[in-house]
Design a protein that fits this description.
It holds the Pfam family GGDEF. It catalyses: 2 GTP = 3',3'-c-di-GMP + 2 diphosphate. It is an enzyme of class 2 (transferase). Its EC number is 2.7.7.65. The protein is 50% helix and 21% strand. It is of the alpha/beta class. The protein has 3 domains: 116 residues, Response regulator (Rossmann fold, 3-Layer(aba) Sandwich), CATH 3.40.50; 134 residues, Response regulator (Rossmann fold, 3-Layer(aba) Sandwich); 150 residues, Reverse transcriptase/Diguanylate cyclase domain (Alpha-Beta Plaits). The strands form 4 sheets. The protein has a 5-stranded parallel beta sheet with strand order 2-1-3-4-5, with helices on both faces. Strands 7-6-8-9-10 form a 5-stranded parallel beta sheet, with helices on both faces. Helix 9 links the parallel strand 9 and strand 10. The radius of gyration is 28 Å and the shape is flat. The chain starts with a strand and ends with a strand. The model has no long low-confidence stretch (mean pLDDT 92). Bound molecules: guanosine-5'-triphosphate (GTP). Guanosine-5'-triphosphate binds next to strand 11, helix 12 and helix 13.
């Protein structure tokens, strides 16, 4: 990623270069006047340009128009606070107008660029029956590089959310035909928690109770129409930042810190729900308990760090092989489980045995060289009314048999 800083003050450009490389690990080019900015823009692709308005060879902010014409997002970083100019430039489509006040202004600018990078992969659904309002919100969101999808009422918003599980933010109007904003939020929240989808409610209605009602029904925030451009962006950014924080907390609680697969806590808490679902629907579910063979020897011979490298690669291979359809978790030091929801034991056995054979012939690259690792596994199938604990205990008897029979084996524990 490459960023252009157009700034005649060496102190400012040095600070910005330092903050940007620290925050984003990116390439930063600096131009101290309009002519050198033009030269750089002619030869390079930029993710964003951060520009001063008053340059030695262009003192009226001409650089902004030049950058925007090249379809490059532009952040104005200026020492002159001019409200009229600010409004005009925001109207023109700049990302933000930042006043060089103190070091926080520079930190804010670097963080803004980081958010722009994140926004590129954030999908936002805008539900509003007014085409004008929808297009306006789309243009604001696109200035900040979000991916935008539109829906013209509550029902089509619900359908779009079903078809696009990767939508992160829903911005919904209150008054809409077929299903209004409240109805939409209530239906959405039956299925998606606050850690999965953020919602901002909108309304031009003068009813003062609307904002509280939106939030009580499950919205994260509310905006009264008409709103100013900057307030809209602040609300969106704050909502997404808190969603990121909730996601981070959820990951810390449920993912294994070393291997990034689900942890023991997740498996015990959430897998019970899957078992109940399978029991109710009389479906099938098999479980594999895997334990790396002679793992202590890896630690003793090559050190704990190499042991960690092996665990990380082993988990990554498990994830690659199974996590698209099944649940992979690390439940102990070198013990992992794969929950095969929907599979009978014969199929689960075949998949795990294929994984075992592949592992045996594909050494793991570590900092101390390539190591050949094998794994022993116990596989079992869910009976009727069992807990995760009971299922695991039975898989463990299979694992014990596999170890006793010489390791590098898969053994079935019948239910
Ligand atoms: N590097 C590393 N080692 C771990 C971690 N957690 C547990 N271990 C080690 O895993 C090893 C497990 O060893 P054992 O239970 O004796 O089993 P084993 O050597 O794999 O032998 P078998 O299971 O009988 O084949 C111990 O040396 C633990 O210290 C971890 O997070 N990182």
């Amino acid at each position: 990623m490459r960023i252009l800083v157009v700034e005649d003050s060496q102190v400012v450009s040095r600070v910005m270069r330092h903050l940007l490389t620290q925050e984003l690990c990116c390439e930063v080019d600096v131009a101290s006047d309009m002519a050198s900015a033009k030269e750089l823009l002619a030869h390079n692709e930029y993710f964003v340009a951060i520009t001063d308005l008053n340059l030695p060879d262009a003192q009226e902010g001409e650089i902004v128009k030049f950058v925007l014409e090249k379809q490059i997002p532009c952040i104005v970083l200026t020492g002159s606070w001019d409200a009229e100019q600010r409004a005009r430039l925001l109207q023109l489509g700049i990302v933000d107008y930042v006043f060089k006040e103190n070091r926080f202004s520079y930190e804010y600018t670097a963080k803004l660029v980081k958010r722009l990078r994140r926004n590129q992969s954030v999908k936002v659904l805008v539900a509003d029956d007014s085409v004008v309002s929808r297009k306006f919100i789309r243009s604001l969101l696109e200035q900040h590089l979000f991916q935008v999808i539109e829906a013209d009422d509550g029902i089509s918003a619900l359908e779009t959310l079903n078809d696009n599980p990767d939508i992160t933010l829903l911005i919904t109007d209150y008054n809409m035909p077929r299903l209004d904003g409240f109805g939409l939020i209530i239906k959405v929240r039956e299925r998606l928690g606050r850690e999965e989808l953020a919602i901002i409610g909108l309304s031009s209605d003068s009813d003062e109770s609307l904002s509280a009602r939106f939030i009580k029904n499950g919205a994260n925030d509310f905006l009264q129409k008409p709103f100013v451009h900057e307030e809209f962006h602040c609300r969106v950014l704050t909502t997404l930042d808190s969603l990121d924080m909730v996601t981070k907390l959820w990951e810390q609680a449920n993912l294994d810190y070393l291997t990034n697969v689900f942890n023991r806590r997740y498996f015990f808490n959430f897998y019970q729900e899957k078992l109940t679902e399978v029991a109710q629907k009389q479906g099938s579910l098999s479980l594999a308990l895997l334990d790396i063979d002679f793992f202590k020897k890896v630690n003793d011979t090559y050190g704990h760090d190499v042991g960690d490298e092996v665990l990380i690669e082993f988990a990554s291979r498990l994830k690659q092989s199974f996590s698209q359809h099944f649940t992979v978790a690390r439940i102990g030091g070198e013990e992992f489980v794969v929950g095969f929801k929907g599979l009978h034991i014969e199929k689960a056995y075949a998949l795990i045995d294929r994984f075992r054979m592949q592992l045996e012939i594909t050494p793991i690259e570590t900092s101390k060289g390539a190591l050949t690792i094998t794994v022993s596994t116990g596989v079992t199938e869910f009976g009727h009314d069992e807990t995760v604990d009971e299922l695991l205990k039975r898989a463990d008897t299979g694992l014990y048999e596999a170890k006793s029979a010489g390791r590098n084996l898969v053994s079935i524990a019948e239910s």
